[in-house]
Write a structure and sequence with these properties.
Keywords: Coiled coil. With 192 residues, the protein is an all-alpha fold. It has five helices and no strands.
């Protein structure tokens, strides 16, 4: 049992059959080097007899059943660690996909904004060019028209289409004045 505990603590414990064979082989190797009558030889013979009896004892069987449970627990831990690692990898991949999708969304939005900006810039440029063209055309038309043959814009002006200036008529005073009173009396006298 001490040999098994030693192997267990050395983290070198293998299968039950291998460990039993290893123990027997080591005892046999020691036995070859010592005479059976020597103190060490007697101990080795005792250990071999005890091993035959202990190999199937409750204590050794319990040791090996604990080792089986230990291996099962160790395997479960490894499986859980692997599952955890896979879940972490899957989570990282999902986070990467989310980041990638967000980046795509930002790029699409940026592209659309840029395209709208370009379209707006083209539209503004076109309007400015059209306005400039209209002003240029108006200036050219103004230069092409002779100054005395201006077309009336519909407002009353002081020039006729043929260029003749119109004089403003004298204002009519329709209210009677003091001078008019004397003359009206004369008119009244004459009528009598």
């Amino acid at each position: 049992m001490n040999f098994l505990n030693f192997r267990l603590h050395a983290h070198d414990l293998e299968e039950e059959v291998l460990e039993h064979d290893r123990y027997k082989n080591e005892l046999k190797a020691i036995k070859k080097n010592y005479a059976e009558t020597s103190d060490v030889g007697q101990k080795v013979i005792g250990w071999l007899k005890n091993f035959k009896n202990d190999k199937n004892s409750k204590q050794v069987n319990h040791f090996w059943s604990l080792q089986v449970e230990r291996r099962n627990i160790f395997m479960e831990i490894k499986l859980l660690e692997e599952k955890s690692r896979l879940l972490e990898k899957q989570q990282n991949e999902l986070e990467y996909e989310i980041d990638l999708e967000q980046t795509r969304h930002i790029l699409v939005t940026t592209r659309e904004t840029r395209n709208q900006g370009v379209l707006l810039q083209k539209e503004v440029t076109k309007k400015i060019e059209n306005r400039g063209t209209r002003h240029k055309r108006a200036r050219e038309e103004k230069k092409a028209d002779p100054p005395n043959k201006r077309i009336s814009s519909g407002k009353r002006g002081d020039t006729l289409p043929d260029g003749t200036k119109i004089k403003k008529p004298a204002s009519l005073n329709l209210l009677p004045s003091d001078d008019d009173d004397d003359s009206s009396e004369e008119h009244d006298d004459s009528s009598e």
